[in-house]
Amino acid sequence: IILSLQLISVFSSSCSSSNFLKSRSKAFCKHPLKLRGGQQDEASGDVTPSGSYHGNYIAPQGEQPKASTTVEVKSPPSTAEAPTAAAPLASATSKSSKLANLQERTGPAVLMLGATFLLLKYTGEKGLIGLILLMQLGLYSEATGVVEAFQAKKGSSIDKIKSYPVQKWWWFMTAMIYSGRDLIMQHTSLTGDQMNIINFCMSAASLVGCVISLAMLSGPGTEDLYREYLGKLSCCHFSLLFLVGQSSFWIKTVQEYGLGWVLFPAFLVIVNDTMAYVFGVLMGKHKLIPKLSPKKTVEGFVGAGLSTVAIASPLVKFCIGGDIPNLGRHAIILAVYASLVSPFGGFLASAVKRAHGAKDFGALIPGHGGVVDRFDCQVVTAPFVYLYLKNFYNVES
Fold first, then answer.
1. How far apart are CA 111 and CA 104, in angstroms?
2. Going by C-beta distance under 8 Å and a sequence separation of 6 or more, which residues neighbour residue 195?
3. Nearest to residue 285, comparing CAs of 296, 271, 272?
4. Which of 9, 146, 184, 196 is the most buried (most CB within 10 A)?
5. Mean pLDDT, contiguous 10-residue spans, the chain (397 residues)
6. Sheet containing 47-48, strands listed edge to edge, beginning at the edge strand earlier in sequence
7. What is the pLDDT of residue 16?
8. How many angstroms separate the Cα of 325 from the Cα of each of 23, 328, 335, 395, 396?
9. What per-residue confidence (pLDDT) applies to 36?
10. What share of the chain is helix, strand, coil (3-state, %, to 5)?
11. At a CB cut-off of 8 Å and minimum separation 6, what does 37 contact?
């Protein structure tokens, strides 16, 4: 429709211009003309260099040059109605695209849940702990990789610090040994004091190594390289704190409270994320945080929260079971946290991706992105669940 109206407008403009030129040509024929560069003699046809050209027309002899004539071409009145006609089509296309994306996400999600179920059925708590350790590796690798890829596009000079890759994974090992100290002590003869000494020595070695790496740099642009290195250092340590540190509470929860109290909050977050997407597709009109996560809507956030709280009580009976006092109340409290606070882990991840020009943190899971994309909300829930159970669930049980 818009293309047709534009063609009509162009045709009308050309017709107006054509009529204007025809009227001008009739006026010129009544007088001797001053041609560009001279005056033409009617009898001999000779041209004398006394003429002048005045932009839009040739002035007849004896006539003062007039101001340039401007032709105003008005657009057809129906053009303003084109966006209104196109709006329903754009809305329908957007909804069909969202539904197609939902179908693409459903298959891998079902496969992930099925694989996790089989793993836990045959390996139990040990299998879950092993899965968490692999997830922590993926979380750290993807989060730091997004920043490194962005700086590489800008022309990174971090390659001058040859020890950076070693330092990056040294920090990861230091954090993993600290967060998994209970596991290490269970399977070795090391004591808590010995683990403290090992962690302290590894931290001190990383500090000395960082300073020596910076001191060995020289030449022009050293200050810029300092900033780039310290930026990556901050990224690595924030990834360790926010992703690896918080996810380590899953291990403590499964060891002290059992497998069910890890699965139940995880299902709450999955339900909340899924229902936020469904309500956003079907009813979403108002953006929640458009600058950080343009696809999130107020309707999706509210609908997901109500759905998560509604399913909490039957879901906790399925995951935990048994005759536990106030089990439904505990379930609702965890559901409220999973609805109101956990989504902000996803908002923060969206801000990181937007700041570094990345669509996803990885491509491990089709339709979902990487490990961080799938567990950014889950890691925010893990420490709250453990601390809540330790301070409230233990007292009543």
1. 12
2. 177, 181, 184, 185
3. 296
4. 146
5. 47 47 49 47 51 51 54 50 50 62 70 82 89 94 92 78 90 93 91 94 94 87 87 93 95 93 94 92 88 88 95 93 86 96 93 90 77 92 96 72
6. 34-35, 38-40, 47-48
7. 46
8. 96, 8, 17, 11, 7
9. 45
10. 70, 5, 20
11. 47, 49, 51, 53
Contact between 172 and 287 under an 8 Å Cβ cutoff? The reply is no
- What are the backbone angles phi and psi of residue 156, rounded to the nearest 5°? -70, 145
Amino acid occupying residue 269: V
How far apart, in whole angstroms, are the C-alpha atoms of residue 178 and residue 27?
95
Q: What is the pLDDT of residue 92?
A: 55
Are 149 and 356 in contact by the 8 Å Cβ rule? The answer is: yes
The CA-based angle 313-315-316, given to 5 degrees, is 70
As a whole number of angstroms, the distance between CA 250 and CA 258 comes to 10
Q: What is the DSSP letter of 54?
A: E
The pLDDT value given to residue 61: 56
Among candidates 251, 266, 265, which has minimal Cα distance to 178?
A: 251
**What is d(CA 13, CA 24) in angstroms, rounded to the nearest whole number?**
17
Whether the full predicted model's pTM is greater than 0.90, yes or no, is: no
Task: Kindly report the length of the chain.
Answer: 397
Q: What are the backbone dihedrals phi and psi of residue 144, each rounded to the nearest 5 degrees, phi first?
A: -75, -30
The answer to whether 116 and 127 have CB atoms below 8 angstroms apart is no
**Amino acid at position 339, single letter:** S
DSSP string, 146-199: HHHHHHHHT---GGG-TTHHHHHHHHHHHHHHHHTHHHHHHHSS--HHHHHHHH
What is residue 11's predicted lDDT score, i.e. its pLDDT? 43
Strands (E), the chain: 34-35, 38-40, 47-48, 53-54, 57-58, 287-289, 293-297
Integer Cα distance of 37 and 11 in angstroms = 34
Q: Which two tokens stand for residue 237?
A: 């340590």
What CA–CA distance (Å, rounded) separates 203 from 54?
83
Q: What is the CA radius of gyration of the chain?
A: 35
CA 386 – CA 392 distance, rounded (Å): 10
Cα separation, 277 vs 299, whole angstroms: 10
Structure tokens of 200? 């302290």
φ, ψ for residue 187 (rounded to 5)?
-110, 5
| CA separation for the pair 192, 379 (Å, rounded) | 26
